[in-house]
């Protein structure tokens, strides 16, 4: 692919959006002066964490080296400097979300997750309350469900469809669809008592942008839920009471923060490292002051009380919203760094950042959608494309010419070798993952029973992906980053007459001169099989391939005497164990095999696990030594 001609074509289509032409620095200048460390790296995980700039960190260090910041709970001049910078930071955050300080307050937390936890544990739940959340939500939002259920409230998920645009003059009924699966209430079996219509408070949570697919959610949902809940929920028992709305802006705030002057959400959460890379471990809860009055806080600490008596049940809370909810001394040095992060965001503007990043994402989507194998089969399946508006995230999986899936971990490992940093898995968003991958409850439970958990290498189970590949772009991403990634996909996963380097589901053996001649840059030097996850493998000259990879590779696991799955992270003894198959596995099919439960004694010198074929009664011994 010719870089110059490809970029010229890209600029013809996206030139008005790409590159910050009207800003003090364009994208090429930003990369050359602020991100020299990216010269040999293509960083495509901005949804996970964006990057800090060099001038930003220089300003932070200069500030800390020239100013003495004391504990803001003290009364010294150094403490007053901290108090002043914290107050300015709160105002800067509210301005970023276009929130009036008369209507909203900024509560600093250790991150978006801590802000969500604060909402969950202080929300005025009752047995009449409901917690409704969109299917596409981060685990940290789903965790609020535990607080609701523990108080006897109802909890249920909704799928928000894109059938009709949600507008002021249009009915939203077709856009908000209840799922068929309500979460079972612990106290009362999920059924509201007759006649309970009192002053119950309900909470609806949705993300401004899905961190799995990049789908952007319509902020008009706030008004619809608050004012038309009975119509949207079809007069069900769950529409009663007053609805408050929470927006998880952790993913969306970097390019399109919610406008709280127009869309009156009650709670908004985010983390600063998603905005400008540094500081980490710091986030905020933007809370509507009327909603803050409803929150029921039990614990108090030094900074949250005006007075307390040690040997009497007496304390008096402070009156300010921020001081009421910020336990202990806030991270004032990290808060002092916020102003330096906002400088480049304000210089570029979020609207320009949004246009820049989404233009790159659109280019990648178009390229991936067009990729075909030589037999005409499409390579990539992209997720979330039916949404009317997408953020700067592209989530997808890839297929071989025969229709079998490439494992996302395979993609990630090859990308790392190519200097490309991306993310794979479900991205802590189980609802979106199941929805877009077409995984039923039975599929999910079957995968869990097979041992699949978050962060493991089981990327294909029962012929289906358990997660996806995600690339996401930040304000400093370039067209060249995107093109290098597209080239990587084409060179490694598209099977054509000129590129046959990708492994096919057939037996291979050493030597492989034929493959080396077909793709001179790619040749196989060894084959290592790892039958037991986390144990050492063994090398062979030839080995059968299946649709999921090497036969028997990572097929078995070790368990402790308590039933815990053992990995190298949990036990260093695992890595010291070698293993080999004592019988020829080529004679047994995967479907015939089944596991004979046996506790593995990790202290023994040699342990043999026996596998038995259900049809023929043949035995395979797997020696662990």
UniProtKB/TrEMBL annotation:
> Coiled-coil regions in this chain?
none
Origin organism is Solanum stoloniferum
Task: Return the protein name.
Answer: Molybdenum cofactor sulfurase
Q: Which Gene3D superfamilies match?
A: Aspartate Aminotransferase, domain 1 (3.90.1150.10), Type I PLP-dependent aspartate aminotransferase-like (Major domain) (3.40.640.10)
| Residues covered by the Molybdenum cofactor sulfurase middle domain | 524-585
Q: Residue limits of the Aminotransferase class V domain?
A: 42-167, 244-482
InterPro entries reported for this sequence: Aminotrans_V_dom (IPR000192), MOCOS_middle (IPR005303), PyrdxlP-dep_Trfase (IPR015424), PyrdxlP-dep_Trfase_major (IPR015421), PyrdxlP-dep_Trfase_small (IPR015422)
